[in-house]
What does this fold into?
Amino acid sequence: MKYKHILNLSAGLILFCSCNPKNQSVNINISPDAGTNYKQGEKVEVKLDIPVDYKADSIVYLLDSARIDTKKDGSPLSLATDTYTLGTKLITAKVYSEGKEQEVSTNINILASKTPELMSFQVEKIFPHDTSSFTEGLEYHDGILYESDGGYCKDGQKSSLRKVDIATGKVIQKADNDCDTFAEGITVIDNKVIQLTYHERVGYVYDKNSLKLLSKFNYMQGEEGWGLCNDGKYLYTTTTGTNQIFVMDKDNYRTVREIDVYDDKGPVNNLNELEYIDGMLYANIWEMDDIVVIDPKTGAVVQRIDLSTLYSKEQRQKDGADVLNGIAWDAVGKRLFVTGKDWPKLYQIKIVKPKA
Ligand SMILES: [Ca+2]
It folds into this structure.
């Protein structure tokens, strides 16, 4: 019986080899097509189109680099995407036959499951803001507004980290950056203020009370330093007009993970100044009057706030440079502040549903 089985197997091999000589791969197609969009929660059916005369011994499926399933044949593989983070996922099938491996792959985009809720705002209070401050970072702690002002000396400006009296808009304390440094996002954590720079790839660490420079560090997240905030444990940073948010260790500034930000239509790019509020990330969209609210667990934009009537474009002076850029949250008083680059006002606003 055993002998017969071996004979049958040999016959099968001979038959197989006559169609597909060893070391020659066959044409295997995988679907869905590369770049197909799915909303988070939708089922994805992965299918292999294998020539009828090709006998696969096993097929191993990987999602990015993690093995997710093994099959004995090319029957469809169903993926539940409920728990997937958003963004591009690589699907690979490793097809094994007679000890040989052949690999085919495709990629899909997981988008947010819902359209972001469109929100409006109400102005609760208006404060003066220094029109010479090209706001690149903004936070509020213990009654003080912390602001990062970006600019190069060669352009007649100078970067600085400021403590500002919110009532008057006056600078209480200031630490100037080097002339050839363009200051970007800031965040206050562990009695320190951390400040990023635009192209210089250097982060500054200041003592929160004295604004004395404690140390500098190099960071590699993205091409340019843009926004920065923290949740008490991790730092979050944006870069160079992308939809990426890097989550960084607060002590060694290494990347812990990346968040790819999407709504239900596609990637949401140009994420700029950041603020962490009640478990969500708030981000200015560069050159737009919108703030998006992002779920950091998935990267989904859950709300979009239209601030276009706050400080209208007709009132602005600087040909598009003076954009909305600055979100600060008073966690104790539950007050939300927004401003922009060189804006004359800082606004305390409340996010509300738009009037019907
Ligand atoms: Ca901020």
